[in-house]
User: What shape does this take?
Amino acid sequence: DGEVLITVPAHQALWSAHDDFLGHRRRYNRRRLRDVLRRGGLDIIECFHFYALLGVARAAGVALTRLGPPRPAHGVGRWPLPSTHVATRILRATLNADFRVSRRLGATPLAACGLSICAICRHASA
Assistant: This one.
């Protein structure tokens, strides 16, 4: 009777060494993710892109990487500042705001912006 929240990386064109580092196997678009979830027996309650700000940064980073020599990938786990640091708190607040705005835009033409996709689902028999 519960719901499941699934997040996946979005936009195959943004594939980079960072995806390899994180162990990603693919990047999705909403249609492909919806197909996979339905075949898996899930009803989709909500499905939307999020982290538009990071999507813009990733697109620029991927473009620059393709123009120059390969660089080693790094993960988000290397954030050097503690959770109480002002920069960490500002970043977290910015990303949370981005998520909330993206969720509200989920049914608009702007919905395809974002580095990741979130789907909220429940089992089809529920």
